[in-house]
Structures are given as C-alpha cells and as structure tokens.
Amino acid sequence: MDVPNLVVSNEGLSKNFHPVPSNDPDEPLNWSKVRKCTNFSIVLFYSLMAFVDLDIGTVIWGDLNAELGISYSNLNNSFAANCAGLAVGCIFLIPYTLKYGRRPIYILSCSLMLASAVWQAKMQTVTDLLLTNVLSGLGGAVSEAIVQMTISDLFFVHQRATMNGLYILMVTAGTFLAPVAAGYVAVGQGWRWIWWWTAILLGVALLLFVFAYEESKYVPVSTSTTAASFEEPPTATTTACEPEQESTAVKKKDADFSEQQLDDEEQQQQHQQQPTTTTPRKKPLRQRFALITRTPGDPLSVRHLITRFGLCLVRFPAAAWTALVYASSLAWFSVILTTMSTYFTLAPYNFGAAQIGLLNLPPFIGSAVGLAFSGPLNDWLSLRLVERNDGGVFEPEMRLWAALPSVVLMPAGLFLYGFSLVDGRHWIIPCIGTAAFGISFSLLGTVSLTYLTDCYREVFSLPFVLGACSLE
C-alpha cells in the first residue's frame, strides 16, 4: 500500500504533511489550531476523568472493609468486574463510533461513568460495588480506543507522538496522581466524597462534549455533489480499495487491503483525498454540533469485528505487537494497583488511605520522565532519522528506538516491586520499582500507539477494540 509520509530535501528538513488534506474547510486536518486545541483539550480532560473514575477506588479499600464489611476477596472481585466491563465495552461501542461518529460515543461514555460515580457515592452492599464497577468499566472502555481515533482525525503524522504523549500523560495523571488526591479527600471528607467530586467533574466533561465538542469524524464531500451538500458522502465501489493520495517520496512495504477487509469508514477515508472541482462551503454550526454523523452502510457487527481483528493480527505483525505490548502493560498495571491497595494496608506497613494514595507518586514521576522521551523527543528523533535515511523517507519503525529502555526497566521494576513487597522491605524499595515501571508504561504506551497509527491508519482502531482489553 502506497502512502505519503515525511521527506527531506537536499536543502534541509521539510515536511510533506500526511495524510494529505482535501480542500474541504470542514475536514479536521484543515481546522485552525484554536479549533483543534479546543476539541483535543476536551478529549484530554475526558481521558483524565475516565482513568480517575476507573482507578481511584482502590485507595479506599481499607475504608470499605472497615465501614461496610466488604472483604478483600470481594474488593478484588470488584476490580475484576471493572476489567470485565472494560473488556466488553469496546467490543460493543466502537462499531457505533465508526458508524455514527465520535461525539455520541463520548457523550454516552461520560453519562455511564457519571451514573457510576453517583451510584458508588451511595453504595451500601457488595452488589452495589460489583455493579457500579461493571458500569464504570463499560463507560470507560472506549477511552482506550476512541482517543487514538480522534488523534488520527485531527493531526498529521509528525504530530502524533506528541499528542499520544499528552494522552498518556492524562492516563498516568488519572491513574497515579488522582489517587493521591483521593486519599486526602477520603481522610478529610470521607470516602464517599471521592466519588461525589468525580461525579461533579464528569458532569463538567459531559457538558463540554454536549456544548463545545465538534464531531471530528470526517465524511468527505463527493465529487459528484454540490458544495452545499453534506448529507450524502461517497459510497464504496466493488473494486479493490484505492490507496490514499500518494507522495512520490515514499513507499510503504505492506500489501493492499481488499474491499472485504475494510469497513465503511475506511473506504471513505480512501476517497477523502480525491480533489473536488469547487471548494465546499463551511458547514453551519447546527451540522458541526449534530449529535450523529452517519456513515453509509451498516455498523460492524460484533462477530464481524472479532473476525476482522483476528485477520488483522495474523496479517500484520505490527498490529499484533502493539496489541500485546499495550495490553500487557495494562495487565501489569492492574497487578500493581490491586496488590498495592491490599498489602500496604497490612503489617508491617499498615498504611491508611492517604498513604496508599501517596504510593502512586513514584509511578507518576516515572511516567512523566518516560513521556519526555516518547512524546516530543520521539517526534524530534524521528525527523532526525528521516534526514539520515536513504532518500529522506520516514518509516514508522523509527518510532521504536524510544521504547528500547523499557526492555530493561519494565521487568526490573516489576521484580523489584514484587520481591520487596513479599519480603516486607522498606516502602521506598517497592516505590523505586513502581517508578521504573512508570517510565516503561509511558514509553511503551506512547510509542506503540503512535507506531500503529503511523503503520496502518485504516485499521489502527481494531487492535485496541479487543487487544487492549484482551488481557484485562
């Protein structure tokens, strides 16, 4: 499949933007910086709150055990219920993201998490605990796929590592930093208030999506329609799919997709680069903030999605590698989170909620260090490698250099954390292990997300629909 990317000229480094945008002012790639930043800032806030809602609950396990009499076995079961919701949520919701756009799914996701937070603030029984965690997982599941789809909608190849880095920063802040605040809130205001504050902030996110977030899914204007028509996008033909508008500077080495392997959205993306004879008029505000942006054809069924996922992993090793790496990182993070909340409440540590929250600072600091290398510096390194490459061609594998430290840091951090915790060592030793894990978590997350998006823009959502949750 031939795709354009970045090239360098003899006069120095220059960027050929990929994907090549059309002349439609409503194509998200053509939006102004203010318009893009507004949309993506809302998405980043959503990402932060999604992981706050998913991860702060473990801080108050000791309080739930003491006040409601919920055993640690059931508390662990509640975390498993949350992971089950995460695993199932993407499978059912992402097909509708492809069919009806990003905006309604963001709104639905926020609504489910808001309902979950309110319910958890009022919970009294084990049943409440389990059901609220399932609901929270269902609502937060799409945050691990839809944000990357939005990044692909809005940004060019040379910007994606930075944007994925910002996303991972929000993930790590919600995962590691929010529990610090939650611990102090639990001590000062009571454990129920960590959920009331979460509900308030999720309500703010919901209002932002309803009133300020524009749909970023682009349905291209057909060459056969007038500039004023935005209702009927071009339909797919029965021939093999054509590649995107090419740059003669680069050739990608993977085989073409057949029509049967692409969904409706992907077929439209391939047509979006076809030039129009006239410049389309800008959509009115009512259409830009429409609840649904419909794509022709039926949404992918769950069976179809799973079949396509399997084919994707078999045919494209990059997709399989990304799914495995990202899912494994999430799985090890879950292990750290649950063991931290269980064993540090026992002797010889006997930590309270505030102290359990503070244990999340080392992995957050480590993640911040990792993001410096995997985000903006990764974009910079990729451009430098383009200069050195024969012909000035950008190759997605250039992204992988930034992930090399994780080969050592991830296993070393996990071993240090696990063995020191079992032996009851001073708390600083497992914290060093979680800091090393935090560096690896952000490196692998940002690099793998960006690498897959650069390799296969048409299929990058599939591994994260099932792969990112398969090890939950």
UniProtKB/TrEMBL annotation:
UniProt region (Disordered), positions on chain: 229-283
UniProt topology in membrane: Multi-pass membrane protein
PANTHER family: MAJOR FACILITATOR SUPERFAMILY (PTHR23502), TRANSPORTER, PUTATIVE (AFU_ORTHOLOGUE AFUA_5G00430)-RELATED (PTHR23502:SF50)
One Pfam family cited in the UniProt record for this chain: MFS_1
Regions crossing the membrane: 40-59, 79-98, 134-157, 166-187, 193-213, 318-344, 398-421, 427-452
Entry superkingdom: Eukaryota
Compartment(s) where it occurs, according to its Swiss-Prot or TrEMBL record: Membrane
Sequence ranges of Low complexity compositional bias: 229-242, 269-279
Protein name: Putative major facilitator superfamily
Signal peptide: none
Organism: Diplodia seriata
